[in-house]
Amino acid sequence: MPAGGFSVSPASLPGTEFEAKITAAVVVSCVMAATGGLIFGYDIGIAGGVTAMDDFLREFFPAVLEKKTRTREVKETTTSNYCKYDDQGLQLFTSSIYLAALVATLFASYTTRRLGRRLTMLVAGVLFTVGAILNGAARNLATLVAGRILLGCAAVPLYLSEVAPARIRGGLNILFQLNVTIGVLFATLVNYAANKIHPWGWRLSLSLGSMPAALLILCTWFLVDTPNSLIQRGRLEEGRAALKRIRGTDDVEPEFNEIVEASRVAQEAKRSSFRYLLRRRSNRPQLVIAVLLQLFQQVAGINAVMFYAPVLFTETSLYSAVITGGVNVLSTLVSVYSVDRAGRRMLLLEGGVYMLLSLMAIAVVFRIKVTDSSDDLGHDWAILVVAMVCTFVFSFAWSWGPLAWLIPSETFPLETRSAGQSVTVCVNMLFTFVFAQTFLSILCRLKYTIFAFFSVCVVVMSLFVLVFLPETKNVPIEEMKERVWKQHWFWKRFLDDDDNHHVIVNGGKSK
């Protein structure tokens, strides 16, 4: 046994398993690659705090600042408490961040396929650094949005899935999500400190995004590119050497041959991976599940709970944000530990139960205590809402938060993996954009019943997991077709039809 690694025994797992050790190279590579999550989390967490800073609003949204100041000075009984944040300009600024990320992600499939996973992350780190500097130095809204366009890349979860051994792939992949939660918490603390620095505190908040980006650039120099990516680009010997390094053994021929075969299938597709992904029936299961997981993640109500509940406590909003941010980090650690033990389906179903209970409780409290003219919950009710918010965040962060990213990154075959991951991120950004652009307006109209709507969505998504989502834990990433999709009661029909089609087209010889 080489130093720095210990054996993973596959004896208890069905089907073919590849020899692998949890080597120092695997752990260090995945930890460094997951640093990209810090950037994503910081970008998410920093936006909400910055838009609450008067100096930032004065620079870019003076009309919003005027309304905010007037509301503080004069109690407006004619405006519903559910509508006081209903401002299209505020919504547009928040949602434009995700729209810009969607546009940037459209290029991720090409770069990961042509340049490789490692170099793509390096380019992403450089773009993030430039974007953070532009944001901090912005003098107008156009420069601010230009900086946002440079933020976003889908390569990290893909890198983690291809480097990690199947037995611990879920836990190492969720390191990305863990770093996202740490980035959000760090952004919350930065915003608190920067809000006391006038008039340029908001510039400090936005510029500090360059720190995790610079860390990603530094870490990327020490990463080994994935064997899958090297082999896909025709660099077979480099791919074999990389596989030996990350698996900690010279006996890699079975896994190497399987990756080579998957790469050959990718080359024989003779079309762009996006067209291949969309047109071939055997790709439907992964594509449908990836899209629906992103939709479900958004309609679960995480943005509503994280945004609206804390603003009810104007004097303790920082403490509420810090508490929920800390809960977010700790509960993601639960997912890292349990995802490869309990499995993906179990975590999603259990998380759905607790999310449903907390959403229903929040809806009841809002129905009783929050009216159009009063938002005074009182001490006891406020504690209850904070507890329910923490319960919801805790449940989401070890289930639907990380797993909606993990499952798509490990289920697409090599020939469509880059395109599939880009579609996953683009769909997530699209749904996030739509939700961010409309949430405050919907809240103004639905009021407390919006939490009842989220409860119904949680029930629907849990039923989908129960009926249609197969378990993927401990399955080698290149064996998903045979051991997952062809064994599922519903999805196997898409692969059977596809196999029959190839038998007919190739004169009775399937490939």
Describe the fold and architecture.
With 511 residues, the chain is mainly α. The chain has one domain (24-225, 269-505): Growth Hormone, Chain: A. The chain is 72% helix and 0% strand. It is built from 26 helices and no strands. It has helices spanning 24-33, 36-51, 54-60, 62-73, 88-105, 108-114, 117-137, 141-149, 155-163, 169-194, 201-207, 210-220, 227-232, 236-247, 253-268, 273-279, 284-299, 302-311, 317-338, 344-369, 379-397, 400-411, 414-446, 449-468, 480-483, 492-505. Helix 5 runs parallel beside helix 8 (141-149) and helix 22 (400-411) runs antiparallel to helix 23. The relative contact order is 0.14.
Give a short account of the largest sheet: none
Q: If classified by CATH, what would the architecture be? A: Up-down Bundle
> Share of helix among residues?
over 70%
In terms of DSSP E residues, the strand content is under 5%
SSE sequence, one letter per element: HHHHHHHHHHHHHHHHHHHHHHHHHH
Number of strands: 0
CATH superfamily: MFS general substrate transporter like domains
Overall pLDDT metric: 75
Determine and state the CATH class. Answer: Mainly Alpha
Find the CATH topology: Growth Hormone, Chain: A
Shape: globular
Low-confidence stretches: 1-16, 309-316, 501-511
Structural class: mainly alpha
Oligomer description: single chain
The rounded distance between the terminal residues' Cα atoms is: 38 Å
- Rg on CA atoms, Å: 24 Å
Number of helices: 26
Tally of discrete structural domains:
1
